[in-house]
UniProtKB/TrEMBL annotation:
One of its GO terms (molecular function) is DNA binding. Keywords: DNA-binding, Transcription, Transcription regulation. This is Transcriptional regulator. Pfam families: HxlR.
């Protein structure tokens, strides 16, 4: 592990997490929880297998992750964040919020995974009616479904499908995020190819002011 050789807390932190791919490994473990090596690699398109193995060893040596042998029927090694690793969550949320400004013009070959909805969605959406019944919004993209669960004043996302979603949004992730961050109305998003099924009033609950989003950013 390379070092900046500086007696500074920021430099010392970057000695541990500043290498390429390291923070994205932390991102995946924060979003997924404990997972198999193959699941971790799937969430990191473009990383070489040997580099991922190296980064896992470095993070394990630094005390940020640990490995555990899962019993049958899983019977495989799971990678977990340690308590110290999990303490990076507010750092990752701050980076995610700051980085939204650079998402206006995605490259044509940008990869996407459904769990990556979490940071922009939880940053922009709010439960405007905490006393109402829980609702769910299923987000369907080519990489698989994710679900936004709204209940009691909280908005959370998870990987997977909903048994009976109140609203479903299907299409390119750019269009889904444009709708959920207030850059497009439901009618505008539908005109650009987003499939919207279910109760659209759910949008008013989580996005009560559509104009509050980053409307100045362009939508591809």
């Amino acid at each position: 592990m390379r070092s900046y050789g500086q007696f500074c807390s920021i430099a010392k932190a970057l000695d541990v997490i500043g290498d390429r791919w390291t923070l994205l490994i932390i991102r995946e473990l924060l979003l997924r929880g404990a997972c198999r090596y193959t699941d971790l690699k799937n969430g990191l398109p473009g990383i070489a297998t040997n580099l991922l193995a190296d980064r896992i060893r470095e993070l394990e040596a630094a005390g940020l992750i640990r490995r555990e042998e899962a019993p049958p029927p899983i019977a495989t090694t799971l990678v977990h964040l340690t308590e110290a690793g999990a303490e990076l969550e507010p750092v990752m949320r701050a980076l995610g919020s700051w980085g939204i400004r650079f998402m206006a013009q995605p490259a044509d070959d940008d990869e996407f995974r459904s769990q990556w909805f979490a940071y922009p969605v939880e940053e922009f959406l709010r439960d405007a009616d905490p006393g109402a019944s829980p609702v769910s919004i299923e987000l369907r993209t080519a990489s698989g479904p994710a679900v936004i669960e709204v209940s009691g004043g909280t908005v959370r996302t998870r990987i997977g499908a909903a048994a009976s979603p109140d609203l479903a949004l299907a299409g390119r992730p750019q269009m889904i995020l444009a709708l959920l961050t207030g850059k497009l109305t439901a009618a505008e998003a539908a005109a650009r190819g987003l499939e919207i099924t279910g109760d659209e009033s759910v949008l008013r609950r989580v996005l009560p002011d559509p104009a509050h989003g980053v409307a100045s950013a362009s939508v591809p």
